[in-house]
Every structure is written in C-alpha cells, then in structure tokens.
Amino acid sequence: MSSRGGRDAAESAGAESAPADAVQHKNEPPAQAATPTQEQSSPPAETPHVKARVGIQAGHWKASEQAAELASLRGSTGAQGNGWREVDINLDIAKRVAALLESWGVTVDLIPATVPIRYAADAFVALHGDANSSTTLSGYKLARSSRSSIPSKDDALLNAISQQYAAATGLPFHAATITVNMTSYYAFANQGIQHSIAPTTPGVILEMGFLTTPKDRKLLMEQPDVAAQGIAKGILKFLGL
After folding, report:
1. In this structure, how many other beta carbons lie within 10 angstroms of the beta carbon of residue 36?
2. Per the domain annotation, does 35 fall within a domain?
3. Is residue 14, in this structure, part of any structural domain at all?
C-alpha cells in the first residue's frame, strides 16, 4: 500500500489522501530496539484449545476477485519494483503470522483483498507494504478506523502490535505519513461497505515498512520471520496469551 495519494485513494475506495496528524488515537512511538531480533515466541508444549479467532489480511492478494461493490479496487495490485511485488511480501509474512498464531491454538483466517461480509473475529489485522517517492523514508505505521464503534479495543490492538513490532524490527513509528486513507480503510466497519469487518471486531491496518527504501525492503524480504514474530507477539499480547 502506498503513502502516495493515487494508490491510497484507491485503497480507501474514494477517500481523499491527507495527513492524519490530528487523529486522537495515535500514541507516542514505543522505545525502539537497536537492531532487528530473531527471538522466537515459544508456543506452549502442547497446543491449547483457545477460543480466539483472528483474521490476517494479505493486502492486495486476489485483488482481481474483489466483490462487485469494490470493483474499482480490482486493479489495485500494490507497489512493485525491480524483482519484488508488495502483494508477494504481504502474503508471505501473513502466512508466517498465521502459522505462529496457530501454534498457540488461535484459529486464523487468511483473508484476501475481499473481506467476508461483516467479518466477525477477536481481531483483524491488514498487512501492507508502504511506498513513497522518497527512498530514504523508513519505518512502519499503524492505524484504526476513525469511525470505530469500539475505539478502546482498537487502540489496545494497535498499541500491542506497535510495541512488539518496534521491538522486533527496530523500525521507527512513522506517524507523519499516516493518512485519512488508512483511517478510512475499506475493510474497516462503518464505511458503508458490506465486505468489511463487523463493528464489534477490533481492527487495524499495518504498513510494515517502506518497500521503496532499501533498508526496510531488505528486512521484509530477507528477514520476514522477524516482522512476523513482532506482529504475532502483538496479537497474542492483545488476546492475553
């Protein structure tokens, strides 16, 4: 997903791109790790029976199959460059996150671009890679719906992932490039779209790093388990596991 207006506009199904510095739910970035770490989150000796369901959306995956109400997004295939495509990176890390959560007994739905109608779960996380005309921007960003019916739960999910992702990857929180298109992401509830999460489902969108910046791209492509660990740990923390 790009922080540039053109591609962001498509992602929000018509919302205008503008900085979201005034969004009240954003917190100060957590303390950063000096370097990425491959520390593993150790699952229980025996897989427990956990009554928790999580949806992990791989951004742009199967975009050509978008529902009729989102037909304008069927050509939204994500950023790409010399030898890489955002959609492939999103899907790879999404699968790794799903495997980690399942090892803890969490039921995981790997969700493509089309979200099931009023998708209900204990958490929903949309994974994307960012892009920008500047090749020096570095960092990740997280946002939840500005129209959320459950802002405190959304913020709890956002903060848990932010803390763990920053610690795992060493990437800074890049609040300056959060846009209205992230806080009005089409998959969020209350956007007037049927194929979206239920109003009772906590949800966030995570831009995992700037794919147009060599440092961030190298991390996500060559150390995908580092990113996946950070995301999974954040979700597990939110679930109380």
Report:
1. 18
2. no
3. no
Q: Tell me: the pLDDT tens digits for 220-236?
A: 999 999 999 999 999 99
Residues of the chain by 3-state class (helix, strand, coil), percent to 5? 35, 15, 50
Quote the tokens at residue 125: 């996380």
Strands 141-143 and 203-210: antiparallel
Residue 71's nearest CA partner among 224, 200, 195 is: 195
**CB under 8 Å to 71, separation ≥6 — which residues?**
none
191 vs 231 pLDDT, higher one: 231
In this structure, which amino acid lies at residue 71?
Answer: A
Coil, strand, or helix at residue 45? coil
CATH code for the domain in which residue 109 is found: 3.40.630.40
What predicted TM-score, i.e. pTM, was given to this entire model? 0.82
